[in-house]
What does this fold into?
Amino acid sequence: MASFLALLPRSLTTFLYAVAALLRFYGNIDTTPIPQVPLTILQWSFIAFILGTAALLANLGLEWNTGNRSRNREIEARERETRRDNLADEERNRAAEERDRADRADQERDRADQERNRADQERNRADQERNRADQERQRAARRARIQNRGFVLQTRYQLAPSPEARATLIDSLSFIQEYGE
It folds into this structure.
């Protein structure tokens, strides 16, 4: 059902624009086809054009909603992963504290110091790996923002090809070429 609803506005938009064109360019524009409704062919074509534009806006709304839902799912997945990492860190910390207590009770301080050093090194490695993963996520988010901005500018230019939109699009392209990935 969702795929039908996603396809309907596109098909309806195309059909209504085609009807508007046919009515406007292939008929006598001053005739009234339905005598009970006092509208000329030109007015009917204008109504078909307005309906096509409304269907286009509905399609844009559906696409926007779909994009927001997928971004929200990705954000929730990242948050779940962060929570799991935090729980694992807490569990590791509890285990390290229990080892320290057992070592103090046995009065084997030298071995306990060596194990703490190893645990610290492992934590540092884990922290470094986490930092690398965070940096990679930030780079990916930055790339996604640049791509989204380029897409929005391109869409604006396609919808209204004005010199201002073209200049903004050219600026965006030069930014992408300068900074790349």
Observations:
- The mean pLDDT is 79.
- The longest helix spans residues 41-106.
- The helical segments are 2-25, 41-106, 109-159, 163-179.
